[in-house]
Amino acid sequence: MRTAPNFNTFLKQRKEASDAFVNGDISPLDGISVHDSPATIFGPAGDCVQGAKNVNEVNAKGASLFKPGSENTFEILHKGSDGSIAYLVYIHHVVAQMKGKTEGVPMDLRVTEIFRLETGQWKLFHRHADPFKSGSAA
Hints:
The chain is α+β, with helices and mostly antiparallel strands. It is 24% helix and 40% strand. It has three helices and six strands; from the N terminus they run ααββαββββ.
């Protein structure tokens, strides 16, 4: 039986992919995302996208809205991995530099992500993000 890669080590790669995404670069996120279904994303606007191809297209379109200079932090609430599945729950704080805007746009999201082990690597296959109401953390 093959040992799963260290999930904590992978989380550094996940954060780097998020940093790149909010600065307009989809490549690192594409590298840690699944390319075979099933895959889903529940976006902050309330949408539900299914299928790896569709999810990856939505992610690419989302990254194209950002420009360099965004600030990006994860406030990790909890995480875990067991065998071939792992999860991450966090508050995502961003001050985004958006194309067409001169001022940074603050975004705070509640995020749950689920990963599966594919060919010895953790891959993102589900993301649920919605607006976080500031001050509601206990």
